[in-house]
Design goal:
The complex is a heterodimer of chains A (about 450) and B (about 300). Chain A is α/β, with parallel strands linked by helices. Chain A has 14 helices and 17 strands. With about 300 residues, chain B is mainly alpha-helical. Classes of the chains: A alpha/beta (about 450), B mainly alpha (about 300).
């Protein structure tokens, strides 16, 4: 049988061996915790605490600021120090709640939960919404919206995105090795929401041990199957994973639900597990701290709001001066100019590199080699789109389907002339998306 | 640790392949053909090659210095042009033919149109056709110390028997680098293994050419006739090294098949019905001119908008 995959894509150095065998370790924050009110797609959350208030671990400190939004919870006990703008990984200053950690970690009493079987669809959705769960793979889209499509009975597949195709990242891998039951139980929540759906655990075949564990655990589950995908970036992109597992294709004007699919990533599904089975809101996530500059690359379970400095310290500091620090993976992460930013719901990794390919390699003339066309998973012609974007030729850009770009970075990666293709296309897309909103 | 790190938009990593090492791979892949040319035709061939390559590189360097542009000879693209042009010259041509051709290739075909990536036809072929039209008798005189008389293709056209084994090995008259099918295919395999070129264009070119001459050649599916056409003239060098030139071929996958088929048909027409025995250079140049049109009609459908394949 042909391997499950998609057309295009690349095989970058994956760097996973640095942190793959490091068990998940808990990090207790020491300094202040910073909670940006906007760490999801949609309206910023609204603070419901004031300066000087005492808060407990697991206490809600900001409520959803609209329909597309998510509440935020304190992850330590302590005092609200201030509510002020703070720098986040994107470089923006975002209004944030700052909590001084009292070091006691006193917890609130979590609400009693009903057994899953007795919960109605509305109760489950409400529980996930209240827990502040958003897509933790990086997009940050509120999960409850994904889980409430117009016609729930028409969802055929609930896909657990266990591809982890982004180089260097091992957080999902460790989760699958260490806590696979939580993943499967979390997936069952979605299966209860969608009575006609089948669950798919989609794992890249560079993780045979995970595939073995998950297959073993689901052998008596008629509705859940494990599917091995060809290892290739961006296998874990939503459109690509839907296509690889179901053969259905969606474009930018469609939602996964239009193709009868719902996709969630590993950490998100585990957060659903904590919310539905334990009544706990989203308070922590797994972060891979890695790269050739880090003394001891690790996988940490981190309380949201923890400063990145503390994560690096916890990983033994730097063994070599880093030149570039990326929040997230090397393909889609954000370059950050210093470590003074907080861990958010969508931060999957902290990658510290001793050399920066981007500044080291100077762009030269496009030789039309076509490598970008071969690599583009959206099957576009990136070199032409980039030229149109740079010349602000809107009509041509749109005619060549520039809006179908998923900004995966494959074209920039393969370009032998080192041209900033993704970057140019991305800026034009931003302009066009902003225009649409008006 | 410095206060401020380098920041940039994603992605933050790049592949190791660069324009320079792609071009260097092409140069290396041309060495078997060049080496065989020197063995076949003697020292004069070496002199022509060195002189032509030196001219193309120097022309690019001087032009960029005069225009106060960044000097780009380090990307080896001028070396590729010079080498390809030299391999397309007859060994009996006087020394200045390579120099005039080299200057024309780089100055007129490449730099005046904006340099690397902007030329609309293959510089080496553009120069060859320029020389062929301007100095026809020099460019079509293949008499040299090693061989006298016509090229195998000319013999084939006039109904004279040809020795196919010699044509495959390359022991025939012709331009410096085109005679040995074996040497060219060895170089081409190297490029295919490295992923620098693929078989889309050469494959569709050769197949469509074979189909064309089988139908219109008057010999039907005669193995000897077809092999002689494949091994003779510039077909192999053209199909693997010049039709696959990145800058002047379509960038779309389907466009590349179409381009190859077009070249096969054009080469067939020129060889069978034209006044000259050879037709590869003109076919590729005409094909180059069609590239914008081919790209326009073969744009791939975006993902999720039809035509999905795993």
């Amino acid at each position: 049988m042909a391997k499950l995959t998609f057309q295009g894509g690349i095989h970058p150095y994956d760097g996973k061996e640095l942190s793959k065998d490091k068990p998940i370790k808990a990090v207790l924050p020491k300094g202040d915790l910073v909670y940006p009110l906007s760490q999801h797609i949609g309206a910023p959350a609204k603070p419901i605490v004031e300066k000087g208030d005492h808060v407990l671990t697991g206490q809600k400190i900001a409520e959803a600021g609209g329909f597309v939004s998510a509440p935020i919870y304190a992850t330590v006990s302590g005092t609200v120090k201030s509510i002020e703008p703070r720098r986040v990984v994107t470089g923006d200053n975002v209004m944030s709640i700052i909590i001084e950690n009292d070091g006691l970690y006193d917890e609130v009493e979590y609400p009693e939960v009903k057994p899953l079987e007795e919960m109605t669809r509305e109760e489950i959705i409400e529980c996930i919404k209240e827990a502040g769960i958003v897509g933790m793979g990086g997009a940050g889209f509120p999960t409850f919206i994904k889980l409430s499509p117009k016609e729930p009975d028409k969802i055929d597949y609930v896909i657990a995105n266990c591809a982890e195709c982004e180089p260097y990242l091992t957080s999902d891998y460790r989760r699958m090795i260490e806590e696979p039951e939580k993943l499967i139980k979390g997936l069952k929540v979605s299966l209860q929401l969608f009575p006609n759906a089948r669950g798919i655990l989609a794992v890249e075949d560079n993780k045979p041990d995970c595939i073995g564990i998950l297959k073993n655990l689901t052998k008596d589950e008629p509705r859940i199957s494990v599917k091995a995908l060809k290892t290739k970036y961006p296998q874990g992109a939503e459109r690509q994973i839907i296509f690889a597992t179901t053969g259905r294709a969606i474009n930018s004007s469609m939602l996964p639900a239009d193709a009868g699919c719902v996709v969630n990533n590993v950490d998100t599904i585990v957060a659903i597990y904590h919310a539905v089975y334990e009544g706990k809101p989203l308070m922590n996530r797994i972060v891979t701290v890695t790269g050739d500059a880090v003394a001891d690359p690790c996988n940490f379970i981190v309380r949201i709001g923890t400063n990145y400095h503390e994560l690096i310290e916890e990983a033994g500091g730097f063994k070599t001066e880093p030149v570039k620090i990326v929040s997230g993976g090397p393909m889609m992460g954000f370059g950050i100019f210093n470590l003074d930013v907080p861990t958010t719901k969508t931060a999957s990794a902290l990658l510290c590199l001793t050399q920066d390919d981007v500044s080291r390699m100077e762009p030269s003339a496009c030789i039309k080699c076509g490598r970008c066309v071969e690599a583009c998973p959206s099957r576009l012609v990136p070199n032409k789109l980039a030229v149109y974007a740079q010349n602000y030729a809107e009509e041509e850009f749109l005619a060549l389907e520039g809006m179908e770009c998923v900004e995966c970075g494959c074209c920039s990666f393969v370009c032998p002339a080192k041209r900033p293709l993704t970057q140019s296309i991305k800026s034009m897309r931003k302009i066009q998306l902003a225009k649409k909103k008006k | 640790m410095s206060d401020l790190m380098k920041v940039s938009s994603n992605p933050h990593v790049r592949s190791k392949t660069s324009t320079g090492n792609i071009m260097l791979a092409v140069v290396i892949a041309l060495l078997p053909a060049a080496g065989f040319g020197i063995y076949n035709f003697g020292l004069d061939a070496l002199i022509t090659i060195v002189l032509t390559v030196a001219t193309t590189v120097l022309t690019e360097f001087i032009f960029e210095k005069i225009c106060k542009k960044k000097v780009t000879i380090g990307d080896y693209s001028a070396v590729v042009t010079g080498l390809l042009l030299a391999l397309n010259l007859p060994v009996s041509a006087p020394w200045w033919i390579g120099v005039v051709g080299g200057v024309f290739a780089i100055l007129v075909v490449k730099m005046l149109f904006g340099g690397l990536g902007q030329n609309f036809m293959n510089p080496a072929l553009g120069a060859r056709c320029f020389l062929l039209i301007s100095f026809t008798s020099i460019m079509t005189n293949f008499d040299c110390d090693a061989y006298t008389g016509a090229t195998p293709l000319a013999d084939l056209k006039n109904g004279v028997d040809v020795d196919i084994l010699n044509m495959v090995i390359g022991r025939t008259a012709g331009t410096i680098g085109e005679t040995s099918m074996i040497a060219i295919v060895i170089g081409a395999c190297f490029l295919i293994l490295l992923g620098v070129i693929d078989l889309r264009i050469p494959g569709s070119y050769i197949v469509s050419f074979v189909v064309f001459i089988s139908i219109f050649g008057g010999h039907g599916l005669d193995f000897a006739y077809i092999s002689a056409h494949l091994a003779g003239g510039g077909l192999m060098l053209g199909a693997f090294f010049m039709a696959t030139d990145y800058v002047t071929r379509p960038i779309t996958k389907n466009g590349q098949y179409l381009f190859g088929i077009l070249l096969g048909i054009l080469t067939g027409i020129f060889r069978l019905f034209g006044p000259s025995a050879e037709g590869v250079s003109y076919a590729i140049i005409l094909g180059n001119l069609m590239v914008p049109l081919i790209e326009k009609i073969t744009l791939p459908k975006a993902f999720g908008k039809g035509g999905e394949k795993a």
